[in-house]
Amino acid sequence: MQSQYKRLTDPQWETIKSYLPIKRKRQYSLRSIVDGILWYLRIGSQWRNLPECFPKWESFYYYFRKWKKDDTLENLNFALNRLERERIGKKATPSMFCIDSQSIKAAPFVKEAKGIDGNKKINGRKRHIITDTLGLVWAVIVHAANQHDGVMAEKVVAPLQGYMHRMEKILADEAYKKRFINWVSENLLGVELELSSKPPGTDGFVPVKWRWVSERTFGSLSFFRRLDKDHEKTTESSEAWVLWQNCQLILNRLDPAA
After folding, report:
1. Within 10 Å of residue 155's Cβ, how many Cβ atoms?
2. 80 with 153: CB under 8 angstroms?
3. Does residue 140 fall inside a structural domain?
4. 94, 188, 197, 250 — which has fewest CB within 10 A?
C-alpha cells in the first residue's frame, strides 16, 4: 500500500478522466481538483489548511460535495471496481458479496447521526459497507453507531439492485439474521444470505473464510488520516471519503509504479 501522498500519474489520470465532467472549460483543472481531494484523504487536514501549491480550498470542497450528490463519485467507484476485477481476470461484477460494519469514534464537534455502540463501547458512527471477495467497496452507508446492523443493511444493499445482475450470495454475521434475512428473501430474488461467525468458544479476532476481506478493508481505512475517525459533520461526506479511499487503492494497483 502506498505510504505517502503522491500526485496522480498520467496513466492514473487517463484511467479516470473519462468518468469526470471534463468537456467544458473550467478555471481549475479537474486533475488538480482530484489531486487535492486525494491530498485531503491522505493527510487528514481541514479544508482551509490546503497548501498554497493547490487552488483555493473552496473549489475542492465544491467538487467534493457536487460529485457525491450527482453520483459522479459513485459512478467512478463502480467503474474502477470493474476495471480492477477485469485486470486480475475476474468477471466485471461479482456474484458473492460480504456485508459488515465498523464502529468508529466521532470527532468532538460531530453531532449529526451520532450514537453509542453498546457492544463495543464506542460513541460515534458506523461505516456499513458491502464488498466483493477482493475487498473492493461497492456501496457504503454511514449511520449512528447505536443503530442495529440488521436494520440498516437494506439501505447498503438497495443501491445495487438492478446493477449487480450476477449477485448470488451475501455473506454476513449473526447480527443480520432477523430483519435483513427477510428483506433479502423479499427483495433479492435468487440471492442467498449466508450467515457465518467465528467458532463458538474462541476469543479475539478469528478469520472467517471470505468474510475476512471486509475486515481487511476496514483495516486499510486507518492508513488515511481523514478516515482514522469520523471527522465529518455530515454522513454524506463520511461516505464520500470511504469511496475516495477505495478509488485511491485501485488507482495504485492499476499503476504500480505510482
Report:
1. 13
2. no
3. yes
4. 197
Cα(238)–Cα(129) distance, integer angstroms: 12
pTM over 0.90: yes
Distance CA 155, CA 246 (A): 19
Strand, helix or coil at 76? Answer: helix
Mean pLDDT (whole number) for 26-46? 91
pLDDT (tens digit, 9 = 90+) per residue, 180-235?
A: 999 999 988 889 998 876 655 656 555 566 678 888 999 999 899 999 999 999 99
CB 153 within 8 A of CB 176: yes
Judged against a pLDDT cut of 90, whether residue 109 lies above it is answered with no
Q: How far is CA 39 from CA 12, 49, 67, in A?
A: 15, 11, 17
* Alpha helices (runs of H) in 99-234, residue ranges in sequence order: 149-157, 179-187, 212-221
Q: Provide CB contacts within 8 A for 162, sequence distance 6+.
A: none
Question: Is residue 207 assigned to a domain?
Answer: yes
CATH number of the domain encompassing residue 89: 3.30.420.10
Phi, psi torsion values for 180, nearest 5 degrees? -65, -40
* Residue type present at position 143: H
- Amino acid identity, position 158: A
Strands 137-144 and 122-132: antiparallel
For the chain, give the mean pLDDT. 89
Q: What is the model's pLDDT at position 103?
A: 95
Q: Has residue 82 been placed in a domain?
A: yes
- Provide the domain limits for residue 185: 10-254
**Number of domains comprising the chain:** 1
Which is nearest to 97 in space by CA: 193, 229, 198, 239? 193
Sequence length of the chain is 258
CA torsion sign for 88, 18, 249, 3 is positive
